[in-house]
Every structure is written in C-alpha cells, then in structure tokens.
Amino acid sequence: MNTPPVAPETQRTDGSAVRIGALVPLTRPGWVQAGRHLLAGLELAVGEVNDAGGIAGRPLELLVRDTAADPRKATAAVDELARLGVAALAGEYHSVVARAVAGRADALGLPFLCSSAVLDALTEQPTEWVARLAPTQSHGWQIYADFLLGSGHHRIAVATQPSVYWASGTRVLREHLTPRGGTVIELDMSELTPAAVCDELVDHRATALLLLVGHPDPAVEIVRSVRRDQRLAELLIGAPAGQPEFATWATSLGDDCAAIPFLRYLPERLGPLGARVETALRERLTDAPSFVAYEGYDAVVVLADVLRSHDGDRARTAESWPRVAVEGTRGRIQFSRVPGVSVWQWASAPVQVVDRDPERTDHFRILHTG
Questions:
Q1: What are phi and psi of 317, to 5 degrees?
Q2: Phi/psi at 345 (5° precision)
Q3: Which of 119, 133, 261, 310 would bridge with 316, disulfide CB 3.0–4.6 Å?
Q4: Cis bond leading into 289, ω under 30°?
Q5: DSSP assignment, residue 122?
Q6: pLDDT tens across 123-176, in order?
Q7: Is the peptide bond before 111 cis (omega within 30 degrees of 0)?
Q8: Contacts of 262 (CB under 8 A, 6+ apart)
Q9: pTM for the whole structure
C-alpha cells in the first residue's frame, strides 16, 4: 500500500492516549437523534475498552466532531483530526457526508471505519484506507424490493428529493424491480406538495409509496396527507432509509407512525454481547437503542482490536482490514472485497425489514429478513 506522507506533528511519540476521531451529526440539519445513538455506542465501547486496560496499557480517547450533515464541515474535521494525531476515524451516519470523509481520509492516509452510511461508492477509486460496517445500499434496498414484491406490490411510487443518496436508492429499486415485473414511479418533491402527492398516487394506480425524503420535512406531512386520503386506504407507505427507527418518528406522527416498513440492521435475536450492550445503551439513552447505536459500539470494538496489534500506526491499521475477525454485537465481523464496492466491506451484516406495530407503536414487527 502506498502511504501518503504525514507531517511530523501528526505522529504520536509520547505515552499519551490513543485517539480515535468520531464523526457524528449532532446538530441540524443532521439527523440529531441518529447522531446521539451513534455517539452513545461509540462512548460505551470506549469506556469498556479502557476499563479492560485500554490499548496496551494506554487509554483510548474519543475526539468528537459534529458534522451537522455537512460534507464541507466534515472534511474540515478530518483535516483537524489528522493534525491532532488520531490513529483512525470512526462513525458518520449520512451517506453524502461519509463519502466526503472517506475521500479525504483516503487522500491523507488516515484509516476510516464507516459505521452507518450505506452508499455503495464511498470513494471514487478502490481504497485500502476505508472499511465499512453497514450493509451497502444496493444489498439492503434489493432485500427491501424483494419484500415489496413478496407482499404483492408491483406499482411503486417513490417520493424523492435531489440527493446522490436518494438517486442511488431509486436506481437500485428500479434495476431490481423492473426485470421482475415491477414499475417505479418517481414523484419529485421539489415540485409537488404533500397533498398533490395523493393525486399522483391515484393517477398512477400505485399500491406502495416509498419515502425517499428527509425527516421531519417533508416526510411527516406526506404521511399525514396519505393517511387522511380515503382513496389511498390500501396504499402501503414505506421508508427503506429507516426514518421510523427513531422515537422522534413516533412523536411526530402519533398513531400514523405504525405499519411503515423500513430497513434495520439487526439480527432476529441478539447474542450475549448484544444483549448486554442493549441494557447498557438503554441506560445511556433512556429509550430503546437503534441499530445505529450498535454500529457505533461495533466500530470501536473493531478499531480497538486492530490498534492493540499495531499501536496506532495508521498504515498498519489500514493493512489489517482483511485480517479482522472479532465478535460484535450483531455477529462476527470480517471484511472482504465486494464487487462494485470501493472499500473493505462487512458483507454479512444482518438486514431486516421491520415496522412499528399498530397495536404497540413502541414495538417492532419483523416482516422480512435478508
């Protein structure tokens, strides 16, 4: 692997803490609740690593930077963290931000373990510096498309906004559904009001509407408009990107929050480690931990394992991705090269399609697994 030159001040020469840079959305327009869950998982794991002796006797330290879903802000944070001598980066929830982080980390020669973002093409070219825990968008959204077909839905509308992420998701759905008899109808929310969406759904005879839009706006108003329209009483509303995972979804929509299937990256049953971490995360968050919190925890578990072997050396850390084999909260984590994906990928991450139970909206029903 070609190692980019690193300025002398970025190299750690004393006995100080081993530092990991944590990139999380903590302010708007970032998805703040996702950032809070991600940070809770990261911090819990760091505390446990230090309770167990740290990294070869040195404490593990988390340097947290708020990305606010802004690629430019995130890139500036990567530069700052590199100067501060972090051994690696972890985190990020928003795919467009993670892509900016991955590109900059690759250019600087700084290992980046992306915990939550799913966009297939995190970097323009294959890189040795970046690995990812979350399933790729193409993998997860194909599973979601199979769920739609299995549920009898072939005329599927997508309410979408301009974004690389939403455009990629639409393409994945169309390429998977069309050869199997499905039709994808795009509704541009930069031109339509939530109320006008209802007329479009009726005109196109859609049986499902997928929310490829931001939360709370315009997702919440779209759901309310569709639920109030008696012409659409049988229409399925879906949200493959996972908006209903978080409590703010239920708070915003009340009873309307239920029966909206989304993708979640958890196994059907957590093992002993996952169950223990779930209890600890509940105490930190005061509500049920999302899959994003487990992704944060697992990111630190992986990095701590690698850093113990290489004492924070960046190049040797990046070279270790294909040799990782650690138990995470959601299964055994190993990285491999996946066709069409430019980074090291955990290819066996669990994927579910779930929704909130109409009878108990704080509980989830597993509808399909991949």
A1: -65, -50
A2: -125, 135
A3: 310
A4: no
A5: S
A6: 999 999 999 999 999 999 999 999 999 999 999 999 999 999 999 999 999 999
A7: no
A8: 238, 239, 240, 241, 242, 243, 244, 245, 353, 354, 355
A9: 0.94
